[in-house]
Amino acid sequence: MENLVKIHGAGGYDSDFSDDDGEGDSSEKARERKRETEILQKPFEKGQHSKVAHRSLHSCEVDREEARNRRAHLISMNAFERHKKFVGDYILYYGGQMADFRRSAAKDKTDLDVLRENHRFLWRDEDEDDMTWEKEIAKKYYDKLFKEYCIADLSRYKENKFGFRWRTENEVVSGKGQFQCGNKHCGKEEGLKSWEVNFAYVEHGEKRNALVKLRLCPECSFKLNYHHKRKEVKVKRKRKISEENEEPTKKKKKKRRKSSSSSKKHRHKKQKGGSTSSSSSESEAQNSDKDSEAGNEPDSQSEADHWRGPAPAVEEKSREEEFDDYFEDMFL
């Protein structure tokens, strides 16, 4: 029995030893496989995860992907849409109303408001000192106005208050204020009169005066002169005589004076000494006839004067002076 037990024990020992050899072989095979995979693996390839990733790593990857998508969405939006999105997110998370984020338009100014604040009826050299961009806009608008005649507002004529302004380009083209009544609310074209008014006004806290002209119909002229009559501008026609025409007229006047003085002397002698001889009367009659013939023939003398010396210099008018003479009657 003891021999059997020992043998069994020895056999048992042999079986245990054989199992250890099998496990060693498997471990060696696993190592060899690992070495082969390491040799065959490329440097840019990632290793295979044999285990499940941790939850924190998963959440980090998700957040990174969400941030990437959000950034791409914000870049695709313009500045105003991005601003609206941020305001909406703020109201969504912190509460509030859209009215709290609206900009106040109480201090907004348009170009028309800037013109009204800085406009001047007449610009002086003193006004152009310390020019700002608002004053430059007003000055640029002032330079585009036409300052020959004014447009008047006579709605408060009973209070002796009138409003005047210069004409724009469209009004000049249509004839408003020159060929039509200069009243703002009147368009008559008959019986127009030109008036000269001393316009006293207050501008930027300073009292100023300006002499302006306007053309009005009879009804509007009555409104303008309701309290006291203004000065009416009438047409003054100037007769311009050239130097060539002035010389013969001067000669005619001298000859007429000589003939009149000789006739007066002749009459005076008749009253003192009585009648004179017929020869003297005939000679005086001949002299008077000669004077009358000389007065009636200025052309012959003028032709003779041409040969006495050089021709008188005649000043030629420029084109601007000719236009001024032509439009002189129209602008009065």
Automatic annotation (TrEMBL):
| Highest taxon above the source species | Eukaryota
Residue ranges under compositional bias (Low complexity)?
A: 275-284
Q: What InterPro entries does the entry give? A: Folate-sensitive_fs_Fra10Ac1, Histidine_acid_phosphatase
Q: Where is this region: Disordered?
A: 1-48, 231-332
**MF-aspect GO terms:** phosphatase activity
Comp. bias (Basic and acidic residues): 26-48, 303-320
Compositional bias segments (type: Basic residues): 231-240, 250-272
Q: Where is the composition biased (Acidic residues)?
A: 16-25, 321-332
Protein name listed in UniProt: FRA10A associated CGG repeat 1
